[in-house]
Sequence to fold (763 residues):
Amino acid sequence: MKLPKVLRQSILFLLLLCLTSFIQGQHPADSSKLTLERLFASGEFRQERFGGYKWLGNGDYFTLIERSDSVKGGMDIVKYDTKTGKKEILINAKSLIPVDSEKPLRIYDYSWSDDTLSKLLIFTNAKRVWRARTRGDYWIYDLMKDTLYQLGKNLPKSSLMFAKFTPDGTKAAYVSKHNIYVQDLSTMKITQLTFDGTEDIINGTFDWVYEEELSCRDGFRWSPDGKYIAFWQLDASDIKDFLMINYTDSLYSYTIPVQYPKAGQTPSSAKVGYIDVNDGQINWINIPGDSRNNYLPRMQWIGDKNRLLIQQLNRHQNQNKLWLFDLSSSSLKNFYTEKDSAWVDIDYPDIAQGNWEMSDIPFLSNGDEFIWTSEKDGWRHLYKKSISNNEEVLLTPGDYDVASFYGIDEEKGYVYFNASPGNSTQRYLYRVNLDGTGDLTRLTPKSKSGVNLYDLAPGMHFAVENSSSLTRPKTVDLISLPKYKVIRHLVENKKFKEKIATIDMGIPEFFKITTEDGITMDGYMIKPPDFDPKKKYPVLFDLYGEPWGQTAKDSWGSMWHNMLAQQGYIVMTMDNRGTPCLKGREWRKSIYKKIGILNSHDQAMATKEILKWDFVDPDRIAVWGWSGGGSMTLNLMFRYPEIYKTGMAVAAVSNLRYYDNIYQERYTGIPQENPEVYDEGSPITFAKNLKGNLLIVHGTADDNVHYQNAEALILELIKNQKQFDVMPYPNCSHSIYEIPGARLHLYTLLTNYLMEHVEAGGK
Fold:
């Protein structure tokens, strides 16, 4: 019987749809298969989070922002008893509705005036300055008077930055348009304290490069007695503007200037002063040394005697001087200097921790002894040191690295920190005795193998624990100390785990690979769910490879990689020398003046060993990365074209001279002193060697890695008659998210490019 034409067409369409889905490995009715739309558009795999909490006092209580039942779209401030979980609404959303509005304030962040919870400071209407939303409006809710009022009401909208109370809660200070103001909270009188703030003279905050590379944003501090404000002033008048161009948001294009010191360019000058709040008198602290060839990355008050500790980092970043300034005597003393033949890290931030805020040197209650982190014996260790004498105690002896410091419990005599002596891919909570005696004690239980990160309450009796592994989604627990005990689960991610249980996630596997140079690197791979060891598979390397990123971590990762594994790819990552692994100083700093050279060499030599594996197809090797990983992709494609056949580089630095001075000079030296190091380390130098398929992706409004990098590389490839592909994202920053749907578009682009040029599946 002949079927009707319409029915024949419908059947044909369904057959074609099924065939397409089969080819792509994405059956329309198969919920076990991941798709780009499911990952980047649907929100289906969004995990629960626990954020917006603030410890109160020693940590016996904390507050949270929670959705209000009484006000649509409003948020309540809720107080929890840490031990029992008992809940109390401190501030109802109704109380946060301004008199001239029908809607409550949208809380971006908040802070309390003191332990008695007398005043709440609310940050709202937040705007991005560079990476972070540090500019907005501030409101205060007075719990005693049940009143809500705005700080700096007559100043420009969304112009206030870093508002904070005095210790006694009677005043607040903030920055607006690069000037510092103080406001009396009883009279509401506003007093301007600095008057020279401009785009070039920056008071109370920082320029682009201080924020990006030294984590400096909040640039002033109240003294313990509330009588003084210590602050930074930067003079950026000699810093050249890099002009980004917007072609699409108006009839005529216009430029967006960014004060950006490239490698080799002199930094902004910096100085620290303090203001007497009563009379407005500013006193500058005369720190020896050329202010344009030294950085002042940290400053803090010590104890209750109005003393300031200022850190001074030289231009080469291999010497950090600690200065003590006493306001009562105006005396200045350099009491300690940390040196390194490569570079000195200011905060020794652990990449796994993901905390890039400024951190103070932790002091004991006597105001003299402090905890210091140093790599001077070849490992990153904690020392107890003293300002008044040269004595020091090594607290963490042994051949292992401290990943990050957490806190001091003077009452119990403990120091808490994160480490993983036996496995650099993992992180655990440890403690040692404050007097330097006793053994290293691990507190994280064996059941939580993976990466575990902690936020300890001020009293060191409680902590919030974030835990995950490559195969175990994130959980958040509230724990008690010093004896580790889970008080209750804050985030269990049950729905997410149930969803993941229905997905063919592939086969994750950690490995170690030793190169012909004798270098052993950590890595992991995700194999296809139907992996057959008798077949050969294509490999996509996901890499970073510079001192600011470790990728082979035992923590929950990108599900895009699991989707690619479902398509028939093995996705791998490895950490070369120079990455911030817990493998000692020599591992991390061997890359000094060898960025682009040593890291790409290690990756290529490791890949050569992997190509010997029976299930790897040497003719189907691809690599991709973002930022430093994009630079790594270019270096591998250009330096080792016989190995890597396809590369996808997102937001890559193509010429080391185009990146900022603090980052690049830290790891590569000053270009005027060693130009050959910059030439040899830059991917663009070797662009003429391209043989495979290359996709270049860049946001045109990238204020971090400028679009200049992409265009310079494009010119060089054209000159050498090399064919390649390019995708610019108009007006997008380094993260490429500003255009609605940009992330879905980007990962669709990357997926399609990979599938077009590297055949999927085992053969």
